Amino acid sequence: MRRALTFDIGGTKIYHTIIDENGSIIGDIEKYHTPKSLEEIKTIILNAVKKYENEVDTIGISTAGAVNNENTRVISSTGNLVSNYREFDFQSISKLPVYVENDANCAAWAEYEIGASKNCPYSVMITLGTGVGGGIIINNKIYKGKSGAAGEMHFKMYSDKRRKCTCGAYDCFEAYASGTGLKKTAEEMSGNPDITTYDVVEGADKGNQLMKDILAKWQKHITLGIIGLANIFDPDCIVLSGSMAQFVDTKEVEKEVNNEIVTTKTSIRLATAGNYSGMIGAGLLAIKSLEG
Amino acid sequence: MRRALTFDIGGTKIYHTIIDENGSIIGDIEKYHTPKSLEEIKTIILNAVKKYENEVDTIGISTAGAVNNENTRVISSTGNLVSNYREFDFQSISKLPVYVENDANCAAWAEYEIGASKNCPYSVMITLGTGVGGGIIINNKIYKGKSGAAGEMHFKMYSDKRRKCTCGAYDCFEAYASGTGLKKTAEEMSGNPDITTYDVVEGADKGNQLMKDILAKWQKHITLGIIGLANIFDPDCIVLSGSMAQFVDTKEVEKEVNNEIVTTKTSIRLATAGNYSGMIGAGLLAIKSLEG
Q: What is the count of structural domains for chain A?
């Protein structure tokens, strides 16, 4: 059975492990803080490659940032990573084939292969974390657009400049549906600038009405965003992943979405491929690409 | 050279003509008011088939309403057409192959084959008329989603229920970017319930500041909608078609869009395949499907 050494390179952490062609994690999961220089990032990766490359057939890399259509390099600047990250020639790390893909796309692929969107030719995955990521599966493939950067969940929730988004524009879905968005909504509705997302979910859980209203407002924005995506893509399902997804009532969202869309009914699901779905997806993509 | 008899079946008019495999119109363009019963619609079509089927290789039908992925029948209810239109078995009209596709998708295909998005593997076409239509080209094919209904331009411009859309929901792109949307914006900004889109474009043309502001507001909503689509699809281009497209300053929209998107630069273009792009697209799709 083929195996991949697979990495997840994020703004704060780097992970690596080994997976097999079924998507099972068969190695230790090793974890590092993301260093501040490209050379140090490379050192972590090269050490792992040196240690494990004889045990695997290929190398997969799930990374922050948009990845080109050839799956060889990062094409966007990623605020969370070192500024010269785009110069990283991933193929230089090993004589084995190296397959690079954006982390949200990798996670969507893991859901498609072994998770919530298995057997769904058309799906949209939305990762709700500190920010919002997007991965689109069309016709059983990751949709990347002309350059590789597609699937950015920066579409408007309002048209009158209310809330600035991390992208520099205003009122993107990310600015409302993310954890940061929930905190901002909580600040606005509570008048407390120090309120945390923890305060909201904990308070709502204990029955505090204001906290429940804040959480409902956050979920409403997510619902309205999903309605747009469902009308545009007519997908088999929409998968919610990331640390904030657990606070979404997917049954209620699904009901509201299907009540409003003009396309055919869709399904709203929580991701099931787990916390390491980025690494699993990258590894599976790397193994798949060996087939040519 | 292969030829298609091709129809455009809309809520108010039915057209038919003959096109060749280059997309050139080589027949007379015949026009009818859309009758009030399915039987009368069929009669118009059957008369044309009887008259022309010996001169062509296939039959294309561009129709209002979502069309299934097999391109054989309409799957959605279309408010503008007779209620039993979905029962229409299009293949029954002729022994020749009959290829059916949604009118916005047909128009997008005509732009892809002979118009503004030629040689663009990834594009989104937005038809700005009384309503708003959408046609998405992905990987050189029409994107239809799981059921055939994809490409509906019903995503939110606001999240606080300001303006009802024809789809029954609130604040869809269609409710702001359409001609009807322009009239509504004009009513709100002028306080005059009888103002027409003609008043706005004529007044703006003559330098009336309020009319210029109204048109700018309408264009702003279009720009913000396009920003979302460009971030989601990372397309080669976005094509604007329909009777209202001529009033959009595409250069300005392109500049604003490229200034704001997080994906790579895209191009905003006016459609060039002409008023009969629906028929041309349907005919070209019908001819293409003969190739298997």
A: 2
